[in-house]
Structure formats: C-alpha cells, structure tokens
Write a structure and sequence with these properties.
about 35% strand, nine-stranded antiparallel beta sheet, about 15% helix, eight-stranded antiparallel beta sheet, alpha+beta, Jelly Rolls, 19 strands, binds 2-acetamido-2-deoxy-beta-D-glucopyranose, single chain
Length: about 325
Amino acid sequence: MKYTPRIAIWLSCLAAPGLAATYTQTDSHQGEGFLESFTHQAIADPTNGRVNYVDQATALAQNLTYYSGDHFVIRADDTTVLSASGPGRNSVRLQSNKQYTTHVSVWSIRHMPQGCATWPAVWEVGADWPNEGEIDVVEGVNDQTPNQSTLHTSDGCTMPASRTQTGTSTLNDCSTADTNNAGCGVLAPSANSYGPPFNSAGGGWYAMERTTSFIKVWFWSRGDGSVPSDVANGATTIDTDNWGTPYAYFPSQSCDFSSHFGEHNIIINLTLCGDWAGAVFNADGCPGDCVTYVNNNPSSFTNAYFDIQWLKIYG
Ligand SMILES: *[C@@H]1O[C@H](CO)[C@@H](O)[C@H](O)[C@H]1NC(C)=O
Ligand SMILES: *[C@@H]1O[C@H](CO)[C@@H](O)[C@H](O)[C@H]1NC(C)=O
Ligand SMILES: CC(=O)N[C@H]1CO[C@H](CO)[C@@H](O)[C@@H]1O
C-alpha cells in the first residue's frame, strides 16, 4: 500500500513518452523566412572588430544577405578597399525575434565564413549579459582551432572535470569574471567541424539541447553516416535520446541553471579581427596587421560567408 503512489507515478511516466527526450518542432527557418524571424542589427561591434554591421535594406541591396530556395547566405563585403580612417568592412549580425529558454536548435549549415581575420559565431544570449548566460554553439577565428562550444555566465557556475562527452574541455569555470571572458569551452573532436575542412565536406549539422538540468551540443559532418535521420531530415518530431554522446556536455550539478540562464535570443554574427581574432592573427599564421589586412584585401573575404540550409527549433 505504502508504495502504490510511486508505482502509479512510474507507470504514468512509461505511458507518457513525451516526458522523455521527445520534442516537437515549433519553428522552421529557411531562405526568405529568416528575414521575418531575424533582425539585422546595425550596431557597433562590442568585441571591437573591423566590421560595420548593416541593416537589412543595405544588406539586401549589397547582396550581403541573399536567399533563394533553401539557401540563406550572409557575408562580409568582398569588393571594397577601405579607408583606414573610415568604418570597418560591411558585415551582417542577425538576432532572432523570438526568445527561448529550454529548447533544441538544429542547424543545417553548408558553408561557414573562412579566411584570415574571420570570427564567425552561432550562439544564444540573454539581454542581461553575463547574468542571463551565453551559449556559443559554433565559434572560431582565423580558420584555426579552437572550434569550440562555450558557456559564459556570472560567478558560481562550474563544470565537473570529468563528464560524458566526446570533446575536450578547456576551462571548467564558466564565469566570465573568473576567466577573463573565456568561459568554459569544449573543443570538438573532429577537424571537419570548423572552417575550411567543414566547408570542403559540404558542412554539416549542429544541434544544441538546453534543458533545466543540462546543455548538450552535437556535430555531424555532411557525409557522416551516423547522423540521426530526424536530424538530417529536420523532422517535425525528434528524440535526442537517440543522438549518442554529445561532443559537449554541460550538466547543472555545480551550476544552478535557473539563476544563470535566462531567455535567450539566437544570434549569427561575422566579425573581423577584434578582441579574439585580432589578438591571435599572427600566431594563427596570418600576415601583418589584422586591421590593415581587412582594409586592403577585399578579395580575401570571398569565402567569408554562411550558407544556411535551415534552422529548426523544437520545444
Ligand atoms: C560575435 O559572437 C561572439 C560569440 O561568442 C561574441 O563573443 C561576440 O561578442 C559577437 N560579436 C558581435 C559583434 O556580435
Ligand atoms: C548574390 O549572392 C549569391 C550568393 O553568394 C550569388 O549566388 C548571387 O549571384 C549574388 N548576386 C549578385 C547580383 O551578385
Ligand atoms: C578545423 C579545426 O581546427 N579542427 C580542430 C578542432 O579541434 C580539434 C581538437 O582540438 C582539432 O583536433 C581539430 O583539428
């Protein structure tokens, strides 16, 4: 008698698979649809990059934002020689109009910006940074490692040193204050997850799952036969329990998610030089001064573009 209620709860869980890791698609972004679901942000680059983020009308007029069928392309200008005393190279920063807490996002990306000085990112962030947290899904600079996924938070959020993931942790303290803004990153294990090797493989799929108790990130290259079919097809329902070990796993055991992660917007940005890419420009094998390189070499940015097939959100 004493155990009856527990048995009843256990049975009701078995009977309700929706409580497991099954999700239903809430948003599907593709081609022209990105123009309505995302805003072009003509703002100053907070990371001091040599870019000039333009509004949607300018981006469309200059073909920095382009769509056709299931291609959505955003790029940096690759035709203009810049004046050293003028603004930076025109580029695009997009922010989702919707905000998300717990959800899954799945990206099918064919191409990401490549070349010296490029610092592309696909990420999610709250309005009150760092108090509402930041989740970087894909980020890197100058075509180099690290190709990493990172959390940035306020103080009091750390990750266990040992955890179930295929990637390699960098720092385990996610606090921006403690780590000089580095946060807690995990390097993807596969060389084709970023930059030129990603592009020459035809890109691939990135997926991020945020629950109240963990954040996971997966990557599959375009030709990877192990990609789950619900991921590859952008299915209307998905089951993340079938996706295998993520490359990055951030559990909440020593990080209270409810006080470190708020409502997030999704952001896609491409900056040039700036606090990270500029600082390691020569160390990454790029020539001379980063800002001078950006000013004088427009044709170096011909491949500095994202080509996104779709973004699906599940809740
Ligand atoms: C671009 O994205 C990265 C994501 O990690 C962020 O640190 C940086 O501030 C962003 N820059 C701009 C200008 O949005
Ligand atoms: C605009 O960019 C797209 C994608 O890169 C390209 O296919 C197209 O030819 C460009 N259009 C013009 C008018 O340059
Ligand atoms: C393209 C690239 O730089 N890939 C690297 C991603 O990170 C792993 C782990 O550090 C490297 O082995 C890859 O070469």
